[in-house]
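Page 47, continued from p. 46.
Same chain as before, 166 aa.
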Amino acid sequence: MREGAVILRMPTLEDGAAVYELIRKSPPLDLNSSYCYLLLCDHFRETCIMAERQSEVVGFISAYRHPRQEDTLFVWQVAVAEKMRGRRLAGAMLDRLLSEGAPWASFIETTVTPSNRSSLRFYQVFAEKHAASFQQHSYLTEDLFGGRTHEEERCIRIGPLNTDRQ
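Result:
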């Protein structure tokens, strides 16, 4: 392996603590419990992907097959270490996840807050790259968060995806 090469791979249970730390250092992402990331890296490893560089976790996507839409991959979180941003790593991880972990997926769904412009733009560019439609609608409104201050989460749906997945 050449110096500084990024390896994309499925996570393992042992990666859970490092994934937790990556998310902790990646605002505005919501930080879940370390237990949650351990389960993602174990129970949902086939639909998650991580990026590793010199034995350090520098990227992670958590996702799962939507339980009521069998052809849809729901992307929960996308995190890229600050030092690796601007290198198209998130797109490379999502492309690899779709080709190897979720080849059955014709659609992607996710949620993004209106103020998270960089994530919104990422998904718009991803849809364009895959010649797919990009739709969004209100989904998790502020009132659903039980009185805690949390911005609305808009649902984004991309697809159908170009089967070439380049």
